[in-house]
Amino acid sequence: MADRQRVRLVGAVVLALMATGLSPSTALGLPLAGTQESPPTEVPVAAEPDEVPPVVEEPPADPAAVPEPPADLGAGESITEPTPGDATFGEIVETDGTDPATAGDPNAPEGEEPKPARRGAYASQPPFAPEPILVTEIHRVQSEMAEVDDALAETTAKIEEAREQQAEYTRKLTALRVRIDNTEDRVEEAQEVLGQRAIAGFVANDVAESAAALAGEAIEYDAIMELETRELLLSAVVEADGDDLETLEKNLARYQSDLPQLKNGAERVSRSIDGFIQRAAELEQERDQLAFELDVWKAGSADFVAELRFPILWPYDLPLINSYGFARAPGTIDEHWHEGIDLFAPVGTPLIASEGGVITKIGNGRLGGLTVTFMGDSGNRWYYAHLHTFAPNLAVGQRLGVGDPLGTVGKSGNAQFTPAHLHLEIRPNGGRPINPYPMLKVASDREIAERLNPDAQEPSEG
To answer: Model pTM greater than 0.85?
Structure first.
C-alpha cells in the first residue's frame, strides 16, 4: 500500500511539473534519450483547467538534429499525404534541413529582422485560424426545415381528413348491417305468415266447395255466400303478403349489394391513412436529421456528416474538451497548434468508425502509436491515434460501415504518460484539418439523450 501511494505521489509531481512545460525526463532528473527522439506532437502543453497536463520533451541537444521519421515510413513519405496546391502538414513531415541561423522570412519588410525559418515535424503548418460560423448553411437548413414542416402539416391534415372519412364509412357500414339484419328478420316473418295464410286459404276453399255440394240439403244460401266472401278476402290478404315479401327481398338484395362497396371504400381509406402515416414518419425523420445538421452548423462546424456516430462507445469521459488549435510543444522545433481533439476513455474502450468508408492506412508510429486512417463516404479523412489494440482482421482497403469496430482506446505512441485517449483528426478530402469538436459534441449530446430517454428527443428550433 505504501509503494502504491509513493507511485501516485510521484505521478502527481510529474504531472504538475509537466504542466510547466518540462519533459518527463527533466521532471524526474533523468538524462534525455538522445537526439533521435523528437518531441511529441499531439499532447497539450498550454493546458486549460479541464485539460490533462501535457507531455513535452526537450529539443535535441544538437540544434541541427532533425527528428527521424518512424521506421514504417519510406523515403519522402509522411503520415498525412500532401494536398495538391496546399502545404503538406500532418503528424510527421520531413524537412530539408535548412539551418535556422542562416534562413529567414524572404517576405519580411525591409529593415526588419527576418524571422528564423520553422523546422521540425510541423515546419509547413499554416497559421491557426478559427473557423467561422457558416451562416449560409444555417439559413439553407432552416429553409429546408420550413419546407418539411409545411409538408408535415399538410400530411397531418390529410390523415385527419381520411380518418373522418373512415369514421363515416364505419357509421354507414354499421347502419347497413343493422338494416340487413332487420330486413332478413322481416323476410323470414313474412314467409312464415304467407305460408300460414296459404294453408288457411286452402282449408277455406275446401269448406266452400263442400258447402256448395251440400247446398240443397241443410246449409242455407247466405251461409254459402259468407264462406265464398271469406275465401276471396283471404286470397287478397295472401296476395298482399306476397307483394310485401317480394319488396322485402328486393330491399335485402340491394342492401347486400351495397355492403361490398362500402367495405371497399373503407379499406381504400384505411390504406390511404397508412400511406399518410408512413409519409409523416419519413418527414419526421427528415426533420430530425435536419435538426441535427442545424445544431452542427450552429455549433461552428466546418463540415457535416449525415450518418455520424461518436467514435467511442459508451462510457467515455465528459465533458468533452475542445482542444483544437491549442499550442503544442512551444519553444521546441516541433512547436505547432493541435490539429485534432483528444477524447478520453478507459483503456480498452471500443472504437468504431464514425461513418462508412474505406481504410487507407494502418500504422504503428513513434508519435501516434497504433493508428488507423480511413476515407469516409462524406469525403472526410479520419485519423485515429494512440490505439491500444486493432480490431481483428483489420486491413487496408477494407470497406467499413458506420459503427464498425476499429480497435480500442489506448496510450500508445507519445501518449504513454497521459491518460488513455483517442487523438482524432478530420480532414476534408484529405487536406487541411477542421475542428472535429462541434460535430462530435452534438453527436455525443444526442446519443446520451437517447440513452437517457430513448422515447423522446429534443427537437432543434429552426
So the answer is: no
Final residue belonging to a domain, choices 275, 298, 321 = 298
Task: Kindly tell me the sign of the dihedral angle through the C-alpha atoms of 23, 29, 35, 37.
Answer: negative
Q: Which of 327, 445, 432 minimizes the C-alpha distance to 41?
A: 327
Same domain, 211 and 360: no
> Which tens digit of pLDDT belongs to each residue from 327-337?
987 888 878 89
Distance CA 259, CA 178 (A): 11
Given a cut of 70, the residues of the chain with pLDDT beneath it are 1-119, 194, 197-198, 200-243, 454-462
The domain boundary, picked from 272, 298, 324, lies at 298
In a domain, 98, yes or no: no
Residue 221 grid cell = 244460401
Range of the domain at 395: 307-452
Closest CA to 324 of 343, 339, 335, 311: 339
The residue assigned the cell 310485401 is 244
Query: Which secondary structure element, helix H or strand E, spans residue 206, and what is its range?
Result: helix 135-213
Q: 405 with 351, same domain?
A: yes
Same domain assignment for residues 338 and 218: no
Per DSSP, the residues of 285-336 read HHHHHHHHHHHHHHTT-S---SS---SBPSP--SS----TT-EESTTSTT-E
The confidence score (pLDDT) of residue 182 equals 85
Q: How many domains does the chain have?
A: 2
Q: Which three cell numbers stand for residue 268?
A: 381504400
Q: Of 64, 100, 93, which Cα lies nearest the Cα of 77? A: 93
CB 92 within 8 A of CB 114: no
CATH classification at residue 156: 1.10.287.950
Q: Which residues contact 102 (CB under 8 A, 6 or more apart)?
A: none
pLDDT per residue as tens digits for the range 211-268: 555 555 555 556 555 555 555 555 555 555 555 778 878 887 888 888 888 889 899 9
